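Ticket #4471: structure output looks truncated?

Reporter: J.K.
Steps to reproduce: submitted the chain below (798 residues) through the standard prediction queue, then opened the result file.
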Amino acid sequence: MTPEDAATVPEAGATPIEARGPAAPADAMIVVPVRQTVLFPEIVFPITINRAMSVAAAQAAIREQRQVLILLQKDPSVDEPGADDLHTVGTLANILRYVTAPDGSNHIICQGVQRFQVTDFVSGQPYLAAKGVHLPEPQGSGSDIEARFLLLRNQSLEVLSLLPQAPQELRIAIEGVQSPAGLADLAAAYMDITPPEKQEILETVELVERLDKVSRLLAHRLEVLKLSAEIGRQTRASIDERQREILLREQMAAIQKELGEDSGTAQEIAELGKAIDEAGMPDEVATQARKELRRLQRMPDASAEYGMIRTYLDWLIELPWKPPESPPIDIAEARKVLDADHFGLEKIKTRILEYLAVRKLAPEGKAPILCFVGPPGVGKTSLGQSIAKALGRPFVRASLGGVHDEAEIRGHRRTYIGALPGNIIQAIRKAGSRGCVMMLDEIDKMGSGIQGDPASAMLEVLDPEQNNSFRDNYLAVPFDLSRVVFIATANMMDTIPGPLRDRMEVISLPGYTAEEKLQIATRYLVRRQLEANGLKDDQAVVAPEAIAEVIKSYTREAGVRWLEREIGRLLRHAAVEIAEGKAAKVEIGPAQVAEILGAPRFENEVAMRTASPGVATGLAWTPVGGDILFIEAARTPGGGRLILTGQLGDVMKESAQAALSLVKNHAAELGVDPAIFEKSDIHVHVPAGATPKDGPSAGVAMYMALASLVTGRKIRSDTAMTGEISLRGLVLPVGGIKEKVVAAAGAGLARVMLPARNRRDYDEIPKDARDKLQFVWLEKVEDAVAGALEDAPALAVY
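Returned output as attached by the reporter:
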């Protein structure tokens, strides 16, 4: 059928063609814009047209028996293309057939005739029309053209040989082409390249350049096909071996079925084998897994051991064996994360940033194991979460508090019923990555018993020289823990064994001052409790003065957990008011705190306790931070006995005895008759008698309480003291200075008396506490007497 026939004899099912709108000028070409198709001269190609302008153009061309100009759109997403949306080089084509499909879509089959360069677009018709010039095909000859022609033909035939189910007609067409230009267009038309690349070839009129472009594209495609074929051959070889295994397993399944042992597990075994291949296990682990899989194949599923082996294989498959991909560490972003999540703790943040910087510069190096030590509620766990966020790694927490069985760390052997891996491997599986950040929470609360010592098992976990081949008793194969970032937390270091403590870098987190608590509550806690209680920012407001009152009169802690609970109580009261419709917005000030929380729980006892001679204010360290400790002394007629009460430990009792001996020794300097000690009994009591107390740091306070008692001079009510004493009257250094000073500042004291040899701890005291207090440094007990007893000469202060 000729184009003229197609114009007068529509295809069956075709839409009748009627004249619609004015026709294009005779010297203009009817344009059919296409989205993803490039038509080349001498190529027959089907084109789908559904836009009204394209349908109108095709019908006008058939009706007027004219050619159409096929132009490619620059942007395929444009539905109504204009002159600026089309390439200017296209192909003139004859419409061989016009068909309307049953679904309403329109199709034309076109045959390219000649390249055409658009110079101007013509308006005034319901379709696009353009004027321009014909681009004749160059007729070249010579050895360089012939060489390129033969190369292109050989490349085209080689590509067809590598393509599956390539049409034989296309091979015949390539072999029969005699024109270099025609071969270039034919190869480009059927090559698997993008429309822009085809358009570039269409716009290349010069013959040598066009042949070179097509040849380069074919060469690239040829390399890809060769590589794909090689991969396919290797895959087929692997599949053939696997098919042989599958056939043998099917035969085994048939035999089991005949024996009445068919359990339908053949597919399950095959899936396990595939999962083992894809898990990325090391060779040693993969060998063990396949060995267990073969045992599973030979075992009836009704066997008790079948479930044990299946569970073991599931654990091996689900563990992350592949090396983790560590995202880049952005130190500036890490600083922002730490500042956004935590207020204060500047030294801690600096150490964490140093840690992250080292991890960034030496990602394969052996990083130290950090251990955050501090009272509850100061942000140890949240610091670990911030490190994970800064590293871009998953965070997982393993709680070690109360663990007293070594198997909790190393796992149980598979010989036991219900055996499982230890907490470390379980946490790794939960995180899904060997590069996770693992928080070892409450590492100081592990115990030991007849089941072994879990702290000893932790030695291997936290040792960078050993944990690259950690062997869990359940897995019985080595697992690499060297890429895990371990961070431990503890409330005190005393209960951690020395070898385990030696493997960790200890970072102390002191308790917060009242000002720091106020800032934390204002920035974080109030917002968190608003969300927890379903309130919006414009529905409830807690004034900073109210928070300060809660800190002063309702909480006494080193951290902020109790403070957050009290803020939650305030906001729950506001939630009730709003839910009942009594108020649209609730503002909580200091006056409302007592109404909601009740009477204040804590008051300043310092002035009351030191209103009489014989009472000294000491500073104590506890697992939850620093605290104020009162030492009370009384003298009654007797025979020189020393009575100690208040649940004192052996070391504290010895401090009281040393303090009494020192007071007797200094009786003359204190202006006291030594005979009173022979006629009196001395009673030393430390209130809060239900709480056990021990340690040498109350020596100075005991000495001052006794000195105040025997001299009748009161101790200044704004002063607290700490320090160990010797029988020579020296004041020796003690620990926990940061926590003790923070407690003194929180109790409203104005002066603290510390051992002079503890000056090294001065810089670690929070600046807010340093600004509130006056420091008196003690070399001997005489300095304490001069600085604390009333009516004493002034003492130079730091």
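Triage note (M.O.): checked the attachment and the full token line is present. DSSP finds 29 helices and 24 strands in the chain.
Status: closed, working as intended.
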